[in-house]
Write a structure and sequence with these properties.
30% helix; 266 residues; globular; 7 helices; single chain; alpha+beta; 23% strand
Length: 266
């Protein structure tokens, strides 16, 4: 009975770790729909999403070698807004013997398969908190095809709602398993926006998923930029620093005075 109970607790902890909120640095934003005029200004709605690599890293970190993905090509579906036919895939994601399925669409095979993979992962709780986000309308610099937001969508969302996303904390604290409470609070409430020290762009937050503690904490999202932020080095304690200074001072004095008699080789 004890072994079965331990196995149940361990498996429950796995589901909690899979469904833990993703770091804010791994969340990106894309424009959803056309620009709309309002009171002489232009606004567009932005939705939050994560890359497929973020899902893959979460799976490899929590259940390495224990997950499997199967993709099935489906008949093309009619796209909206005159986009023509879109590709469609059904993703079958299996984790520790549990299977979840969902369908994704896109302009090409890559986009459709990626969409299906992420949707199937949501059924295991991965990035499920993104569905609880409020509407994020951001002011644009015009209404043309190449209009750009006047403010970073992430900063706009935090400024408007005073939090990175509704549901990030509640997902971890009000879930069915208390094991989610083991996730560090600094990661659950991560609201810092870290800029790349080289190009000033947004950075990936790798603190939760990296396996090597000496690897960079942050990496620039721009693939053409090699900007990184390394973890802080542990500070040297005062006693050790004093001992080091004493040794250096002793070495200097010995060099000036000369070796003692018992240090001579003859």
């Amino acid at each position: 009975m004890t072994a079965r109970q331990d196995a149940y607790i361990e498996k429950t902890d796995v589901w909690a770790r899979l469904s833990a909120p993703v770091p804010s640095g791994a969340i990106s934003w894309r424009q959803d729909g056309k620009v709309a005029p309002r009171d002489g200004k232009y606004f567009a709605r932005f939705v939050a999403y994560i890359e497929a690599n973020t899902v893959r890293e979460r799976l490899d970190t929590v259940v390495p070698g224990e997950w499997d993905l199967t993709l099935e090509l489906l008949p093309a579906v009619a796209g909206g807004d005159g986009d023509g036919a879109q590709c469609s895939f059904k993703a079958r994601l299996q984790i520790l013997g549990v299977i979840r399925e969902d369908i994704g669409t896109g302009r090409d095979y890559k986009q459709a398969s990626t969409d299906a993979f992420k949707r199937a992962a949501v059924r295991f709780g991965i990035a499920n908190e993104l569905y609880a986000y409020e509407q994020n309308w951001v002011e644009m610099d015009g209404d043309g095809k190449y209009a750009k937001p006047l403010e970073d969508p992430q900063l706009s969302y935090i400024r408007r709602y005073d939090r990175p996303g509704a549901g990030e904390i509640s997902t971890a604290t009000n879930g069915a398993s208390p094991a989610a409470a083991t996730v560090p609070a600094s990661l659950l409430t991560d609201m810092e926006i870290v800029s790349c020290p080289k190009c000033g762009g947004r950075m990936w937050d790798n603190r939760l998923t990296k396996r090597n503690p000496r690897a960079p904490d942050y990496k620039c999202q721009n693939r053409s930029c090699d900007g990184v932020i390394w973890p802080p080095k542990p500070a040297v304690s005062a006693p050790l620093a004093d001992v080091k200074e004493e040794k250096q001072a002793s070495a200097k004095s010995s060099a000036l005075v000369g070796p003692e008699e018992d240090e001579l080789p003859f």
